[in-house]
Amino acid sequence: LAKTTQPISMDSYEGQEVNITCSHNNIATNDYITWYQQFPSQGPRFIIQGYKTKVTNEVASLFIPADRKSSTLSLPRVSLSDTAVYYCLVGEPLGSARQLTFGSGTQLTVLP
Amino acid sequence: GAGVSQSPRYKVAKRGQDVALRCDPISGHVSLFWYQQALGQGPEFLTYFQNEAQLDKSGLPSDRFFAERPEGSVSTLKIQRTQQEDSAVYLCASSLAGLAGEETQYFGPGTRLLVL
């Protein structure tokens, strides 16, 4: 299973753009990169997923360089409600579905 | 239902007691996963079902842990003779298909187990 490394914590202020970078040096050819968000007392929630280059949805953007050994989650104009733990995962096929390996995540704190 | 539900949300057990945790996945979802999340840590994989078949149970920490999904929908995680180290949040997730690809997993709110 590909191991991921991400900062333990980050602070930001409301209205700023936040970029969280994740390293996954031994990512495999078939792996996708997925980011989840988790609030206290809730299960993780899917944010965005990509394989290469750039992916954007209504919540975030995901930048993946050509070598795919890292990825950056970009949250535009964060608000206080974006305070959460963010997990970067790379997934491998498990039989015919995907097993996810979570690390410890990045605690993002958005300050007023 | 609209999402994955789990019950009970909180469970306090005395050491040595057996507990059963229930997961109701999203209707029609083929794959079901159980995770254990210790305080301050990310979720750790326990076991995976595709319909009623348990295809991987490599993450179960001991033979006191047992999971089933007899009809391919609701799943139960059972812990026998609970120990204090079993205290954690137990998360269930489901995904739509059993085909290789980038399936999104949808998580329930978890069951917080405290073993005294």
Kindly describe this structure.
The complex is a heterodimer of chains A (112) and B (116). Chain A has 112 residues and is mainly beta. Chain A has one domain: Immunoglobulins (Immunoglobulin-like), CATH 2.60.40. Chain A is built from no helices and ten strands. In chain A, the strands form two sheets. In chain A, strands 1, 3, 4, 8, 9 and 10 form a six-stranded mixed β-sheet that branches. In chain A, strands 2-7-6-5 form a four-stranded antiparallel β-sheet, with no helix packed on it. Chain B has one domain (5-97): Immunoglobulin-like. Chain B is mainly beta and 116 residues long. In chain B, a hairpin with a 6-residue loop joins strand 7 (65-68) and strand 8 (75-79). Chain A binds chain B through residues 32, 34, 41-46, 49, 51, 85, 87, 91, 93-105, and chain B through 4, 30-31, 33, 35, 40-45, 48, 50, 55-56, 91-93, 95, 97-110, 112.
Separate helix tally of chain B: 0
Q: Which CATH architecture of chain A would you pick?
A: Sandwich
Strand content of chain A: over 45%
Structural class by secondary-structure content of chain A: mainly beta
Q: Spell the H/E element sequence of chain A.
A: EEEEEEEEEE
Give me the secondary-structure category of chain B: mainly beta
CATH topology (fold) name of chain A: Immunoglobulin-like
Shape summary of chain B:
globular
Q: What count of structural domains of chain B? A: 1
How many β-strand stretches of chain B? 11
* Content of β-strand of chain B: over 45%
Please state the average pLDDT score of chain A: 89
What's the alpha carbon Rg of chain A, rounded to whole Å?
14 Å
Number of helices of chain A: 0
- The name of the CATH superfamily of chain A reads Immunoglobulins
Largest interface: A-B, 26 and 34 residues
Number of strands of chain A: 10
